[in-house]
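the two lines:
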Amino acid sequence: MARIVMKFGGTSMAGIERIRAVAERIKREHEAGNEVAVIVSAMAGETDRLVQFCREASSLYDPREYDVVVSSGEQVSSGLLAIMLQSMDVPARSWMGWQLPIQTSDAHSSARISGIDKDILGEAIAGGQVAVIPGFQGVSGDGRVATLGRGGSDTSAVAVAAAMKADRCDIYTDVDGVYTTDPRIVPRARKLAKVTYEEMLELASVGAKVLQTRSVGLAMKHGVPLKVLSSFEEGAGTLIVDESAFEEGEMEEQLITGIAHDKNEAKVTLTAVADKPGSVANIFTPLADADINVDMIVQNFARDTGNTDVTFTVPKDDLARALDVLEGAKEAIGYREIASDTNITKISVVGVGMRSHAGVASTMFQTLADRGINILAITTSEIKVSVLIEEDYTELAVRVLHTAYGLDAEDAA
Amino acid sequence: MARIVMKFGGTSMAGIERIRAVAERIKREHEAGNEVAVIVSAMAGETDRLVQFCREASSLYDPREYDVVVSSGEQVSSGLLAIMLQSMDVPARSWMGWQLPIQTSDAHSSARISGIDKDILGEAIAGGQVAVIPGFQGVSGDGRVATLGRGGSDTSAVAVAAAMKADRCDIYTDVDGVYTTDPRIVPRARKLAKVTYEEMLELASVGAKVLQTRSVGLAMKHGVPLKVLSSFEEGAGTLIVDESAFEEGEMEEQLITGIAHDKNEAKVTLTAVADKPGSVANIFTPLADADINVDMIVQNFARDTGNTDVTFTVPKDDLARALDVLEGAKEAIGYREIASDTNITKISVVGVGMRSHAGVASTMFQTLADRGINILAITTSEIKVSVLIEEDYTELAVRVLHTAYGLDAEDAA
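prediction for all of em together
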């Protein structure tokens, strides 16, 4: 017997027939004698519809009222799943965030879970009842419904699993696991049986859109074993665990775990920035104050002029705001011109294995150079090397790197 | 300054532009210095969609889970209206049934309001905030969302008005008031400026589908003045009040207030029922036990045989069940045959004025007889005479009675 949390995303809940298939999976786990709590997303398309209503009502909507509207999507799917489970003779009931309660911060529409009362929930599932919980929501300190931001249902699932000390948290989605890279770009991409939390964080944040980054971080913090599985077919999925869960030598076999790409960054270049103390701080302090996340930074010194060009990336969605902020700080910074480019991609090679292997970065640079792909910026971390390239080269770069690091599946596969 | 409750139905809330028009009406009342609480229905079509989901999930759905699903429609419209009001600089917030709370009985999907905490609500509206409350729902004793049954938003509005001792409760709908009869049948039907609760109860329960019967009964009990108004055009609407609110003589001027018709009844006839003590009880006791509401009853004695035919009506929706019950009780009752007919209509003339006027019933019978319309059954109350006729004669009967009682509007109107 195990205590498990199962989470089903929007495409898994899209329509009554899919909800029936979801209920059948749950019934199997329940009949195997497990204690089961289920987290559900809204039916696919529903949250978009509700968000659109709020935007049409007012571009400056009150996030507390937005939460009232948007949280209804998961409320509906949790009630429907409970009805479906009962019709299959599985004891089940829905628990709204305010009923358990799932306490959140007061940052409506992007709240954080601050606590989950595990007494009610623990009693329910220990008594053999399947608890169905709407994801993405809880109740804030002032007793109002609060949502966690888009994709928050993964985070709900992990938070419930952590609070309940679940043996595992299974995330059912429309893909059957985490791949070495996007299979639409590289048909020979391989499904990974096991990755570490750290690798998953790098893969997710740089483009492998399987799990919400926040949920992986939370799972890592609480040591909740995560599994990504398909709602639509049988399969072992991908296990996301701590390094300690790997066998001796299992991790070293694999130099690179995956190749990710991210088209959501924009490049900004300030030319002829005065090379004086504080000028770089004058660039990045106002951006930080405006809550704009700067990722890659490159400085090119021009020895003859004493000036320097500064290039960095910001999320595409924040580009317009970033340019505003920088125009406003032009005098303080002291630059000649500002240029921006959204036709760029960040390519990352990720792998815990690179800690104990030299030459990962040089293989990357050489492989790209051989194909004439220009590198615009570089960042590295302990388990990742990222480069910025022109967007047109995205697929080519991903394919040649996938081959270069030996990730291609066997032809016979 | 007055304290008013405003209620907007599904067609009034159908889409963002209509919600904007609703918000403008509320703003006007608020700017006039009134304390305002608003009850909203789900956007038109939304509740049907949600009910359909539940039925598809399971024909035997748990009403507690049904309530979780179906209550979301009003939750959405209340959040959207609050957003819209705020965008017009009207201070507003939504209050879910569980937040106030609006306490209900445990009869999920057809719960009754048992109490409303007026402290929170009173403080909010006295402070100048418009309180937006989803209709049709509250929270049951076990802390779960409970709905009041279809059309329950009218009841929510009256219950809130009663709890808050509101000066009036304005029901905005897609018609501009209560008419002497259905204007689709009689184009010269007149809008009534004022009717009594008792008349409205008879008119509503027999077919003038403007207000939910339960809400009128509740308004009568608590003396809440109701007003029916159009959301879509300006106008005085129809006031529904106690008889004491009528001027001296105002009521006597009008013999008959309206003509209603109801096609939702079915006729059942048992032939050759043994004319012995208890045989009628043997018919109606099992029907009552099965919660089937019997309306009109006629007994025809056949002097020569000592037997009698018994005819009565039941709601069309309950006919199949009623026939089952009667088949099962055949031996106990002792009848020869059972026959049923759904092609019937109940026509009612309603008016408090008939208390002080003789001849209302005979005018009705004579008018129908003059047109060759056969009367199948009759019931009367202090302010109503109802007859059962063949369905094909419905429109003709309504028209000739409307003229006979002098209800037709002037040509110049």
